[in-house]
Amino acid sequence: MDDVDESNERTVYRAPHRGDRLLDGMKNLRETDHLCDVVLRLDNDPKSTSERSIRAHRLVLASSSPYFRAMFAPNHRFAETRQETIRLRDVDPDVVESLVDFMYTSTLEIETDRVQALLQTAARFQLDEIVAVCGDFILDRLNHFNCLGIRQFAAAHGCVDLLRAADAYVRAHFVRVTAGDEFLALDVEDARELLASDDIVVENEEAVAEAALRWLRHDLQGRREHARAILHALRLPALAPNYLAERLGESDLFRDDSYCLRMIVDALAVHSRMGGSAAAAAVTGRKSTLGCIVAVGGMDSLKGATTVEVYDPRLDEWNVVARVNSKRLQFGVAVVNDLIYIVGGRDGLKTLNSVLRYEASEKKWRAMSPMCTHRHGVGVASLHGPIYAVGGHDGWSYLNSVERFDLGTFQWSFVAPMKVPRSTVSVGVLNDCLYAVGGRDSASCVRTVEFYSPHTNRWTEVAPLSQARAGLGVTVLNEKLYAIGGHDNNVNFATVERYDPLCNQWTTLAPMSIGRNSVGTVAFGGRIYAVGGYSGVSYLSSVEVYDDDKEEWSKVADMKIGRAGAGVIVLKSKDLVVLST
């Protein structure tokens, strides 16, 4: 007898397209009304006596839809669990039939006229696949005529992705959207919310004000009572004085309302007290109208940064836009008419008196007339046009001398010297005067503060800082002077002080999260930004923001590299910083 191979060989057979054939079989059973065990009675109008019925299989409905699975589950106490006929109210019969057909065929026809009804019913049946497909269909057809309606629809039906996309579209195309009829049909809360948004993209605040006026005038009698709420949504100090006085102040919507008129007058008063640029800095403006923060050069781990970074508040990100021609440390920086001036500093060994200006039209730096004195650690600011270079060190001694650059003659000349010499001093402009804050003299860091009046050509001492600081950041917001960070005796400060000229007093505020020496500071969009600095261990790329209303610091995006002593300024247009390499 021959030996028999008793090995047990096995294989697994997988039928191709078995799922499709199974669906086809169920579809045929339904078409022949065979083994159907549930009837869906559809009623779109509660007052209607006509109904449509759809016969189907519980197994198919439950396996396709969590909504029906829960309804038919035997352990649930729904009456429908045991009923042969299920009544569905407030649905479009054609839409329900299409979705049931989809459960049997995996095919669904989507049309513009009924895509919202499909999405709404698919969401009810928890058909996430169809919700996503309908959402994509709508997104592909999103435009400025329908985006507000789509946003409202998405919010009403919990379509998070569609809502996010429609909302972003509305804000990105604000001017075109508000020119359409959907905007005029918004209720007051939705209109106010949109007009108040920080994220709408506009060239200026006047564009927002025009949209507000258009909404109010669409139904003048019915909406006049909402004038105050709509006016509150605007950044009034960001509007041009002529626009405030003539377009708004003389409008019949506001001129007879003492409350509205007071808001307009108060905004005009901000311009009168602070001037246009200071008023703009004090306003928490739209991110698209703020411009950008620019950080130029400074000290980094390679002993001198040459990169220029720009911060975009809409994206919350920093990007390197170019490089300056050479390393320059402990320089001063100022902006006049959106032109960047770099003043003095040192190139590593030699103290400089040279001045550079960025020429936007030619996209390059141009050498300007040099200062009379070589200066590093110099404080630089523009006061009503002229640029002032305050104190510093000339390579041999600490300076109390001050020079002024005339933008008409392009020449430097001396003005009255400070009362004390100061290097690594910071300066700020407050109430038409130039303040010199802290710094270092030949012996130590100093607490003293003094201001210069161009009208009298004199320096006057005011209340000193609570602690001596050099390498601090100084900026002005809401008619007060802020002293931020700095160092003394090798201790780097996170502390912050604020000076009120009305009471000649410094007040200690919430500290930053880390000590920052040689920190760059600017007022931007109604908040103060502290950019980079040196912690005592490393050059910092981190950036903190102070909210004066909340009295707290928070963090925004880091710079690409750590740097201290950078020239940090605000430009109205980021297009101006496409610098030459």
What report would you give on this structure?
- The chain is α+β, with helices and mostly antiparallel strands.
- It has 3 domains: 18-169, Potassium Channel Kv1.1, Chain A (2-Layer Sandwich), CATH 3.30.710; 173-282, Serine Threonine Protein Phosphatase 5, Tetratricopeptide repeat (Alpha Horseshoe), CATH 1.25.40; 292-577, Neuraminidase (6 Propeller), CATH 2.120.10.80.
- It is built from 16 helices and 29 strands.
- A 4-stranded antiparallel beta sheet has the order 6-5-4-29, with no helix packed on it. A 4-stranded antiparallel beta sheet has the order 7-8-9-10, with no helix packed on it. The protein has a 4-stranded antiparallel beta sheet with strand order 11-12-13-14, with no helix packed on it.
- Strand 5 (307-312) and strand 6 (317-323) form a beta hairpin.
- The longest helix is centred in the middle third of the chain and has 25 residues, at 258-282.
- It starts with 17 loop residues before the first helix and ends in a 10-residue tail after the last strand.
The count of domains is 3
Low-confidence stretches: none
- Our count of helices gives 16
Please identify the structural class as seen in this structure.
alpha+beta
Distance between the termini: 93 Å
Helix fraction, binned, reads 25-40%
CATH homologous superfamily caption of the largest domain = Kelch-type beta propeller
Radius of gyration: 34 Å
Strand content: 15-25%
Name given to the CATH architecture of the largest domain: 6 Propeller
Q: How confident is the prediction overall: mean pLDDT?
A: 90
Strand order of the largest sheet: 6-5-4-29
Overall body shape: elongated
- The CATH class designation of the largest domain is Mainly Beta
At the third CATH level, what is the topology name of the largest domain?
Answer: Neuraminidase
Count of DSSP strands: 29
Largest sheet: 4 strands, antiparallel
